[in-house]
Write a structure and sequence with these properties.
Layout (H helix, E strand, L loop, with lengths): L3 H6 L6 E17 L2 E21 L2 E9 L5 H15 L4 E2 L7 E6 L9 H17 L4 E18 L3 E19 L6 E3 L2 E5 L4 H20 L11 E4 H13 L3 H5 L22 E4 L20 E6 L2 E2 L6 H7 L9 E4 L6 H4 L4 E7 L3 E3 L4 E12 L4 E4 L2 E5 L1 H4 L4 E2 L3 E3 L3 E4 L1 E4 L3 E2 L1
Parallel strand pairs: 5-7, 10-15, 14-22
Antiparallel strand pairs: 1-2, 1-6, 2-3, 3-4, 6-7, 7-8, 7-9, 10-23, 11-12, 11-14, 12-13, 15-17, 16-17, 17-18, 17-19, 19-24, 20-23, 21-22
């Protein structure tokens, strides 16, 4: 049987091609309460092929997958179909990333463990935390992954990357005093290097949160206080900002911010400094290169609350006559100067769980329904539920105070909490 590349080259209508091969080796553990129910090993491969066709002044592309069961005739048929589809797409022409080779591995300490021992170590931390808590974890799923990615194209690009990650899904549960009355939360934790203390801290926080959820009531009093957001929501705010700075958004003339624009027009506290980075130890979003095969390093996009530059893919960089940076997965938000103790020294509403934080920059809005929050009135902390928050984004972002304590998650590294003023709570 001919190789995939040979079959592609036989089609004279193909102008360029890109092949991405992803291999996954995974070890999965499924627990119900403290009982290990299932162990599963995964060894899979997926091949994605993109065909590019130049027609008149345009370039079109179409992507298909190749499976192990595909015959030579099947692949030829898929190539022909992709050529037909690509011929209908009228993008401006651009060149692929080419004439580069790379073979690398994302830094991780997973190699220091036997994969089974790592799974056991992760679960032992969870078990130790629940043993000391009034809450329990009803279900736990542990996924430990090793990824192999290979990208090659018709322009002599040949790059390989090995990366690691773990995803831990848990359902923390708290049984209230009333019989058969319990509450649950859902938690998902990602990392690419295992730190026992940091992981235990996250599990303990989940257990404290579900206990608070069991005690939370809808307040029958008015709450007026600054709002504290955790890392997940901080990341979502920063993601909304940087999407406005992507080359594709700029090319389509739909970007709200332009270079030299002030995101914080009248800053009162922390000034935003946002970098986009390819890899960070601990982040499961780490990559050496993007899906075009463009090497990822870092790019400063916001400094002192002001837009410094755009970023984006090889394709849209060429359309805008800009230098490509690649498409990044990780936001690096610089830490603030405030201790968590200082940020929590006055009354506040710390949002623990949202139905979904909404950030609409075009309508100058930030808000959402809060399912669980901790309200500190200056004397004691009260868990509350059934409330909402809202504000004008342009005003709220000026008031942001960032913690100097940081953490690293799947696609974010930066302050653990942020305090925001000028938010309505109702």
């Amino acid at each position: 049987m001919k190789t995939l590349v040979e079959l592609i080259k036989e089609n004279s209508n193909v102008s360029d091609y890109r092949i991405i091969t992803d291999k996954l080796e995974a070890y999965e553990l499924y627990f119900v309460h403290n009982t290990l129910e299932t162990i599963r090993a995964v060894d899979s491969k997926e091949i994605s092929v993109t065909i590019y066709v130049d027609h008149k002044k345009y370039r079109g592309d179409s992507t298909f997958t190749v499976s192990n069961s595909d015959t030579e005739e099947d692949i030829i048929s898929k190539i022909n179909n992709a050529v037909s589809m690509a011929s209908l797409i009228n993008n401006k022409k651009y060149c692929l990333v080419g004439n580069e080779t790379l073979k690398g591995e994302i830094k991780s300490n997973f190699n220091d463990y036997d994969i089974k021992a790592l799974g056991e170590e992760i679960y032992n931390v969870i078990f130790e935390c629940t043993e000391k808590s009034r809450a329990q974890i009803n279900a736990t799923e542990i996924f430990i992954n090793k990824h192999f990615r290979h990208i090659e194209n018709s322009q002599n690009l040949d790059k390989e990357e090995i990366s690691y990650d773990a995803m831990i899904e848990t359902i923390p549960t708290f049984n209230k005093r009333a019989k058969n009355d319990s509450v649950e939360l859902y938690s998902q934790i990602h990392f690419n290097s295992f730190n026992k203390e940091a992981f235990a801290s996250l599990i303990n926080q989940d257990l404290r949160d579900v206990i608070a959820r069991g005690k939370a009531v809808k307040p029958d009093y008015e709450i007026k206080a600054p709002v504290i957001l955790r890392a997940k929501e901080i990341s979502e705010i920063m993601q909304s900002i940087i999407l406005e700075l992507n080359y594709s958004t700029v090319y389509n003339e739909s970007n709200l911010y332009k270079v030299k624009d002030a995101i914080q027009t009248k800053p009162e506290a922390s000034l935003l400094k946002i970098k986009l980075v390819g890899s960070v130890e601990g982040s499961s979003g780490s990559h050496l290169f993007d899906s075009d095969g463009f090497n990822l390093t870092e790019k400063l996009v916001v400094n002192n609350g002001v837009v410094k530059s755009y970023y984006g893919s090889n394709q849209y960089a060429q359309y805008l006559h800009k230098k490509p940076t690649g498409n990044f997965n990780i936001i690096n938000l610089s830490k603030g100067k405030y201790s968590e103790r200082a940020l929590k020294s006055e009354p506040y509403l710390e949002c623990v769980s949202f139905s979904g934080l909404q950030v609409d920059l075009n309508n100058d809005y930030i808000g959402g329904e809060v399912r669980l929050a901790n309200y500190y009135d200056g004397h004691k902390i009260r868990p509350v539920t059934g409330i909402s928050i809202s504000g004008k984004f342009s005003e709220v972002i000026n008031t942001i105070k960032l913690s100097k304590k940081t953490l690293t998650d799947s696609n974010y590294t930066g302050p653990t909490i942020a305090l925001l003023s000028k938010m309505n709570i109702f």
